[in-house]
Amino acid sequence: MISISEAISIVKSNSTTLLESCYKLVEKAGGYILSEDVKSPINMPPFRQSAMDGYALNLHDDLTYQLIGEVKAGDALNPPLKPGEAVRIFTGAAVPDAANAVMMQEKVENQGKTINIVHQIDLELNIRPLGEQVKTGDIALKKGTKLTPAAIGYLLSLGITHVNVYRKPKIALVTTGNELVEPGQDLTYGKIYESNSKMLLSALYNLKFYDITTYKVEDDYKQTVSTLKAAVDENDLVLITGGISVGEYDFVGKALKILEVKEHFYKVAQKPGKPLFYGKKEDTQIFALPGNPAAALTCFYVYVYIALQQFMNREALELPRTEGISRSTFKKRGDRPQFLKAIYNDGQVDILEGQNSSMLHTFALSNALVFMPGELNVISENDKVNVILLPN
Ligand SMILES: Nc1nc2c(c(=O)[nH]1)N[C@H]1C(S)=C(S)[C@@H](COP(=O)(O)OP(=O)(O)OC[C@H]3O[C@@H](n4cnc5c(N)ncnc54)[C@H](O)[C@@H]3O)O[C@H]1N2
Ligand code: MOO
């Protein structure tokens, strides 16, 4: 059995970045990382643009101007203005080349054919210069940039429709167990509803991984071998839940061995999630997570998360950690370090009931896990605790 920190460093050193590119529609590239610099095909803004509703002026020494026309957003007009002349203009409209400032309308008295501005105005005020954000041919976003909603908006504002990004991993979710019944079906005696696959699917979607295939196997050795073979052959990452413990019907370990998956660790000194397995076959990583749902999800956040971030070449491989002050008392049994379901709010931490690895009823309320080191037996009110913040 290895320690949590050893297990984390083994995952870090064996997980790999996917350096293959794929070409994607910009609007579908949210969460991806650019695999090459993106140059701007246009100046942004593409013309000198008014930042206000008001009047574009060709400045002179006087406060009175002759009004000679109007330019609305979208108009392809470029009226010539002599010094002392103005045009009515609106936000987003092209400022005529001959205008050198825009006065907002609140500071202008309109007299019909003339206007009076209330004070003198600086050159170029309220005019967004041509190419202020980026110029034609310059790098708009660098290789390695994560495409946030703002980045997607920015690329589209430059007219860019497709980008090259690092491809995301193909992921297999494999559930095992004779006792599992699909939610929506009748629950007969001895059976439970299968919740791990959709729970992990939801955690993956939440982290913007969408290329996921779900496999289901019964507690049958041959079926486990053939299903895991397909899952390992066809995916970059395989997440298995259940069947990894020591019972006669736990076939996952034996199947992975026969499939020549190289074991990097099996069993971690932690609670929940002791029987966690991590291995590789060629470049495919395999995590066999415990079947107990809270153990599976905890291992997902502490270990699988690292492999996912590494695939995408992200800098922060682990979930953010912080410290908080406990508002609860918790007594630990045994000497394994423990991850505790908790609610973190503004520096205060409530450690919840229902810490058993089979229990999701309080995990459902948690936004954090408290890490309780092995040597600690009690967390008391007002103790400082180490907190892992879960994704929303
Ligand atoms: N003799 C020992 N028994 C057990 C040990 C041990 O060290 N010695 N470890 C215990 C610990 S700790 C854990 S955790 C579990 C892990 O067992 P498995 O990973 O083999 O998981 P299963 O036995 O298949 O299932 C455990 C539990 O979870 C439920 N489950 C499984 N899959 C799903 C699913 N897809 N959706 C919802 N619930 C699921 C399953 O019905 C069981 O109740 O082993 C202990 N035993
Ligand atoms: O590791 Mo198990 O998840 O403690 O119950």
TrEMBL record:
One annotated GO biological process: Mo-molybdopterin cofactor biosynthetic process
The protein's required cofactors: Mg(2+)
Gene Ontology MF term list: metal ion binding; molybdopterin molybdotransferase activity
Any GO CC annotation of this UniProt entry: cytosol
InterPro entries attached to this UniProt entry: MoaB/Mog-like_dom_sf, MoaB/Mog_dom, MoeA-like, MoeA_C_domain_IV, MoeA_C_domain_IV_sf, MoeA_linker/N, MoeA_linker/N_sf
Reactions the enzyme catalyzes: adenylyl-molybdopterin + molybdate = Mo-molybdopterin + AMP + H(+)
E.C. numbers: 2.10.1.1
Pathway assigned to this chain's UniProt record: Cofactor biosynthesis; molybdopterin biosynthesis
Domain of life of the organism encoding this protein: Bacteria
Pfam assignment, any one: MoCF_biosynth
Keyword Transferase: yes
Keywords, in A-Z order: Magnesium, Metal-binding, Molybdenum, Molybdenum cofactor biosynthesis, Transferase
Domain MoaB/Mog: 172-310
Function as written in the Swiss-Prot or TrEMBL entry: Catalyzes the insertion of molybdate into adenylated molybdopterin with the concomitant release of AMP.
Family: Belongs to the MoeA family.
Name of the protein: Molybdopterin molybdenumtransferase
Organism: Pseudotamlana carrageenivorans
